[in-house]
Every structure is written in structure tokens, then in C-alpha cells.
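Our collaborator T.R. sent over the components below with a one-line note: 'Predict the complex.' Nothing else. No constraints on interfaces, no templates requested, no preferences about which chain binds where. So this is a plain run: every listed entity goes in together, and whatever single assembly comes back becomes the starting point for the next discussion.
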Amino acid sequence: MTASRTARERVRAELTREIIEIARRQLATEGAGGLSLRAVAREMGMVSSAIYRYFPSRDDLLTTLIIDGYNALGEAVERADAATPEGDFPGRWTAVCHAVRDWALAHPHEYALLYGSPVPGYQAPQDTIGPRVRDLVVFGGILAAAQRAGALGPAAALPEAGPALAGEAEASLADLMPGVPGDVLLRALSAWTSLYGWVSFEVFGQFQGAFQDNRLVFDHSVKVLGAMMGLTRSG
Amino acid sequence: MTASRTARERVRAELTREIIEIARRQLATEGAGGLSLRAVAREMGMVSSAIYRYFPSRDDLLTTLIIDGYNALGEAVERADAATPEGDFPGRWTAVCHAVRDWALAHPHEYALLYGSPVPGYQAPQDTIGPRVRDLVVFGGILAAAQRAGALGPAAALPEAGPALAGEAEASLADLMPGVPGDVLLRALSAWTSLYGWVSFEVFGQFQGAFQDNRLVFDHSVKVLGAMMGLTRSG
DNA sequence: GCTCGTCAAGAGCGGTGCTCTCGTTTTCTG
DNA sequence: CAGAAAACGAGAGCACCGCTCTTGACGAGC
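Returned assembly:
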């Protein structure tokens, strides 16, 4: 890539890359909190203090891993979206969702680093806000394109679950919500995950003042989800 | 409460309570990973090794905090539900959602302990599965009651956002999704949080084999959300 | 009154992030 | 090409961590 002016710079870039690689591997086995510069140094046959020539602190290494993570997730999402026909907006949305899930399941610890509990004492620097929204940008692009194409209308009739799926939902949740048909159970599941997804975003700082009054927006979302489930009053 | 047979047992119960209290306070300032038995001991004027007479390991103290957390959240949800008229099912759902959000915002570190990244190396024992589903039990009760009362129909027309709310949504997300009306943006936000809520549940082990084929259920949820947003194909 | 279990204290083990110094090696400059 | 300057690895050291083991004091029950 770079013409690597001096030999020193070349070996420096190589070692930096190796540190990141080992750190990511260690992240996968020990978790975000268990990331240890000493262990990285040990695995490289270095002495611990030498690592600090490459990353001034553990947090800087963490920042690099976070940025790499957001970029990897973003790329996966972008690839999934690009592989779907442009006018198939429901398909593009579905593809994006599966891309997120597949990536997260393949890299659970990196996902935890991005969307789990914030690392105590760690403050994400400004460099992360670009890569952080790559998935959102894709999502926004789909919606905006659908709007331009006139393919974004009022809420459509929600698709019904097949009998197999409805049966599995009933089998899993029958003791918790007896008598509720599987179709409703599946919509309820979406509402439930939306609730905790919102709360996690807000508590873990993913919103960062996106709205003036989070509570108001949340309240409306909740009511939308209630209607989606089909809840009505009874006399 | 207990007749506290011996003085020794009484002081032991008191000290145990004090340890938990200090640990919870420490959780709020240092985060879940920064929970330190030594620091707890220091704050109590004890020597570190003495703590192990009360909690055999750091993980046991953590388990206690987790169970207490689930119970606190569960109680808050139960209270919110009980305070709403029985037949007002949309209101009960809304109350539950706000209870979850309010509790989480008031106790962010405890929420992180429950729904954030799993603590590395920590395996939750069986004792946690009871308190863990208290909120879900409430939610299930609402749905089941609505079903019995005949108040659980097909998805209702989604409520429209007022102009103020729609305007705020447009202001916040206009650069990301230009041209999309605020009403759709708000529904899209629910879909987005539902996606990440699902993935977080699955990655962080909250599902624990609830379904035979997570991917199938997920795929259906995603399509429901797509329809809720109003996405359709364009020629 | 004596035994036995409970307890706090202390030392110690191996681990962590991070700092500082020291001698070497590489690069840049005169 | 020689010398100054920068970069580097190694090592010692600081304060902290979870956890274990031993020791000596204390109180409850026989």
C-alpha cells in the first residue's frame, strides 16, 4: 500500500497490525474487559512496556478495535444492501437486518464492544462517530430511495406467520401468554425487542442527544407498537 | 423480620446487607467490571480477606446484585401495571414500557448489568431465571388478559404523530433520510430499535434457546417491521 | 470452664495498566 | 561519512486487583 519510506516504518506498521489482530483474538476469548496489553505483549514475545510505543494506552487500542468493528459491520451491511435489487425496498430492509444479525452472531464480542455496556472509564473519541453510523446511513438511504420511488406508504397489512412459525411461537410462549394466537405473539416479540432496543440505545449512549425530548419520542413509539400488536381497550 | 437467634447471626446479616449496598454504589461509579471486593472492604474498614467470609467470590456478589436488579425492575414494572385500569390494555402496555425506561435511566449501571454485555467469565446460575422474567410475566399477563377480554385484534391503524413530534423527527433525521415524512421516520425508529434489541437479546444470551430456529422467527419479525414502516416494492 | 466454630488480620501469589530509565539501533542531518 | 536525534526493546518498579492460606482472638454451646 504505502511506499513505506523507511524499514523502520514498515516494521512499525506490521507490528501495529499484529497487535490489533492479537487484541481482536483476545477480545473473542476474554471479552472486552479482559483485553490485556500484557497478554498481547506476551503473545508477541515482547515486553509489556514495548506495547506503549505503539498504543499510548489501552483505551487507544480499544478505540481502534471499536472503529474497526463499526467499519466491519458497516461494510457487511453495505454489501448486503448492494446485493439486493434496487427497487426491492422490503428486500433491502430484510437484507440489512440479516446482515446485522449475521455479523453480530459471527463476532459477538465485537458486537458487545459496539452495542453492549459501555466500557467503564472509557470515553469514545470523535473519530468513532463516522464509522458508527455507516449502518444507519444505509438504512436511511433505503428509506429515502423508497420515498422518492413512491414506495413508502402508510403501514401495510402486517404479514401473517405461517402455521409452523405460529406454532413454534405458541409452543415457546404458551405458558407466559396462554391463549394468545401465535401471530400476535410474534408481533409482541417485535414490540418487546423494540422496547429493550430503545432503552439500551438510550442508556448506553447511542442516541447522544438525537432528540430534544427522548421521552416524548419514546412514548409515541410505544403507542405505535401497541397498535401494531393490536391492543385495544375493553369496556 | 427473622427473630435473629444469635447476636452473631444478626451482625452477619447486617454486614451482608452493608456489603451489597456498598457494592451497588460502587457499581454506579465504577461500572460492572470495576466492582472490587477490596474497595468494598476498604470502605467498610475491613481487611479484604474478611469479605470472603460473606461472599465466597466476586461472582457470588455479582449474582446477588443481578438478582436484586431483576427484582427491582420487575417490581417497578408490576407497580406500573397495577396502577393502570385493568381493561385499559394499551395504557398498561405503555405504563410497562415507561416503567422499564424510567428504571433503566435511574439505574443505568444496574441495567447494563442485566441487559448489557455479559460479564466475561461470569456464568449466571439458575437462581437468576426466576427474577429475570418478572417483567416478561407482566407483559404476558397483559396480552393474555387482552385476549380473554376480546381486546386483542389484528394490528390497528398506527397512531399518527403530532406535528411537533413529526417535526422533531424530521429535524433530527433529515440529513440521514431526506424527504421522508416525520411520521414514517418515527415508525422507522421503532423498527431500528427492534432490530438491535433482537440482536442484543440473542447475542447477549437473553433468549437461551427460546426458539428452535431463531433465524426463522427473526426473519418474520423483520418482515413485520418492514410492513409496519410501509415499505413496498417499486417497479 | 473448655472446646469448637467463626471471624478479622496479614502475608503472599500471580495478574493488571502504566511510568521511568537505560542502552541500543536506526534515521536524519551537517 | 560522522555525529546528533529520534525511535525502540528491555527491565525495574508502582499501585492496584482477585484470591488463598495461615494465624491468633473471640464468642456460643456443651
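Summary for T.R.: The domain at 1-56 of chain A is CATH 1.10.10.60 (Arc Repressor Mutant, subunit A).
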